[in-house]
Amino acid sequence: MAVNENAELEELIRNATGSGGASTVSAESEVVEEGGGLDFDTLLMVVRRSLIWLLLLIGLGITGSWLFLRYTKPVYKSSSLLKIDEKTEAGALGLGGALGEGVAGRQSISKLSGEVELIKSNIIYRRLKDSLDLDVNYYAEGTVLETELYGVSPFRVDYEGDILYNTKFSVVFTSPQKFRISYLQGGQEQTSEHTVNQPFRIGGMTLRLRPTAYMGATTLDNNYHFTINDEGTINSYLDRNLLVEIVNPDANTIQISFQDFTPAKARAIVNKIDTVYLQEKIAQKQAATAQTLQFLQQQLAENRQNLAVAEENLQSFARQNKTYDVKATIGDLTGRLEKQEEERLRLVEKIRLLNEVAALAEQGTITAREDLTVEESIPALATIENPQLSQQLTEVNSLQWNLRRLSRSYKETTEAVQQQREALSYVRGNLRRTLKQSRDLLAGQLAALDRQRNSITSELQTLPQKATELARLTRPLELYEKSYLMLMDKMVEFNIAKAGTTPDFQILSPASMPGEPISPVKLMVYAIGLASGIVLGLALMAVRYFMHNTVTNVRELERATSASVLGVIPTYDKEKMSVSKLVVDKNPKSAISESIRSIRTNLDFISSAKKKRLISVTSTISGEGKTFVSVNLGGIIALSEQRVVILDLDMRKPKVNLAFGAENVKGVSTILIEKHTIQECIQHTSIPTLDFISAGPTPPNPSELILSTKFDDMLAELHQIYDVILIDTPPVGLVTDGILIMRKADIPIYIVRANYSKKAFLKNINKVMRANGFTRLSTILNDSTASGLYGYGYGYGYGYGYGQGYYEDTKPEEGMVKRLRKRFS
């Protein structure tokens, strides 16, 4: 089926674009993909149809969680909290400060880690095996799971000789004093019967089964087995389930935890570890005198060496930098730098004043009025402290005012004026030289100050480093001096005191009987089952959404095509039809009749200016309902008092005559070859204003007949008789006849069948429109369910069900499962 549909789609593209040539290829390259993004309508439909599967998957996930909990042995955890007060050498001697705290902190972490390793060592394991019955495990067999009978077994086993370790021995009591034992040896099951309290041999091993206080009448109803564990198995079991961790290093607390399927066994092992550990710690107590003296001597030697190094480093620093007080040096240099800065500002101000004086001298007049002196006009001149400059400025100013008076009385060529100018020029030259010498002198002084400032600044920049270095050298010296004196005092004070580690062991929280298992956690398992069901359900919805490749509702049609939507025709299953039929005359008030009336109204809006209309109805492939739509649309138009004729131009597969129950011995093909006239081929229907012309016998050249002038003449003659010519064309995805007819139509209509037409067909509608310039091409969504009708006002309130009964493919009777799925969707 998929191969045929792909072939039809390829043929559709070739037929729709074949007549366009190179222009069609370019048009295809400009096609814009429409309908991209998330289609919420389709997604909502898929979600509704997948709700039953979501519920089933959630139920499956919860059922799986229940089965997991039912057939998984719960794991229990018992814990105790220990406090280990370790008094180290430094703590016992009262060595505080940086030395004592650093040493004590490192030793605390190190010793706690050592205690953890001690608890998990073979030393503790051997004591556990000697004090607890871990060598033999007893089990009661259940339907699926087995239960360990730690401490409550109805029997005990004594063994000696050549032991068969890690072998499962099954025990079945045939009577209170008799039992049957079986085991596998060399792949063969060995079985024997024995008496309680009587030794018996199995290979090189001697066994004896003794009853305990838990032996009773119910013992005979159960099956038991036991296993004798070797040392490696026991050690592996303890390593696997024992957890020792440091809870708080500052408080020296350690937590001991043990996990097991039996809560009583986990508690017993934790309590026994606490006891065995205490015994081991007491056994490790040592005399401390030698350790204390050795520790003090070691610390004194190290401190003496460090003190000598620190003193030598400080002396080297003082010799190199010629100072012991860096802060005093910094203050002195800072004061010098401030004085130099003041001097520098004064020199800069003098230079600025000289520049201003030079500018005034060049302008022509130094003072504003003749009666003012230079000192009165320039008060800051006194700061320059240059009498020669003041004298020259006064002389220049006097000559300039004399020149102005002479210029007002004499011409420029007068001898007196010329002499005055020469005198002024001479004095100005002297003034310029004096100003230049003064500026050069000040600039030299300023440069010398800058060099001194740079030198002081450089020296200041090195002082922080020297201060830091001095502080760095002073700190260890002070520290080692204090430590040395303190150690000397402690040497006398603790000469005979106890040193070393004094164990102070305390159980802060003894092991208690576990109440709830740590694994599996019911709430978490059920949550995982629920989440798994939801995730699988959502994944199923996503897969169904992405695999959904058929048109389901009108919004998909609108999103994917640029053609206008005339309307939606709901599913019709009032009766089962092997071929398309006229149903609007029999059910005028049904939902399908109302929907086609709406399409008729929309057609009136499209072609309101034309009284004569040529309407073509086509689709992509066969089975999309174009004949059904043509027949019933023609019937609805005819019921509005318009004369309508339906032409069946699907000459290769005619169906219109079948819709009206008529013969197909003559029709369009015989008219076009002039074998019959139009009047001879017109057939009437139950509606007076509705006629039809069947396709006639299938010709060998349908496309050539449609291209002939006879076809245009036939349409012209029919336009004289009828108001509407409705043409049922072949599928455009199979043959080119449909394209040829659509070019002649006033209103070409394209049928898309819901849940049947592929979404790829919708892209071809746009290609057909662009390639042939069908600006009036409209679409109709056929066979739409209630969800596809949403938003158009149909499908609710008419009391009819929906199905697919009027197509060629007949639908089988729906079973219970399909009806339930339909109900949920």
UniProtKB/TrEMBL annotation:
InterPro entries linked? AAA_dom, Bact_polysacc_biosynth/exp, GNVR, P-loop_NTPase, Wzc-like_C
The catalysed reaction is:
L-tyrosyl-[protein] + ATP = O-phospho-L-tyrosyl-[protein] + ADP + H(+)
- Enzyme Commission number(s) from the entry: 2.7.10.2
Q: Which domain of life is it from?
A: Bacteria
Q: Which residues form the AAA domain?
A: 613-769
Q: Does the keyword Coiled coil apply?
A: yes
Q: Which UniProt keywords apply?
A: ATP-binding, Coiled coil, Kinase, Membrane, Nucleotide-binding, Transferase, Transmembrane, Transmembrane helix, Tyrosine-protein kinase
Q: Which PANTHER family match?
A: FERRIC ENTEROBACTIN TRANSPORT PROTEIN FEPE, TYROSINE-PROTEIN KINASE
The similarity comment for this entry is:
Belongs to the etk/wzc family. Belongs to the CpsD/CapB family.
Q: Write down what this protein is called.
A: non-specific protein-tyrosine kinase
Instruction: Give the organism, scientific name.
Output: Hymenobacter psychrotolerans DSM 18569
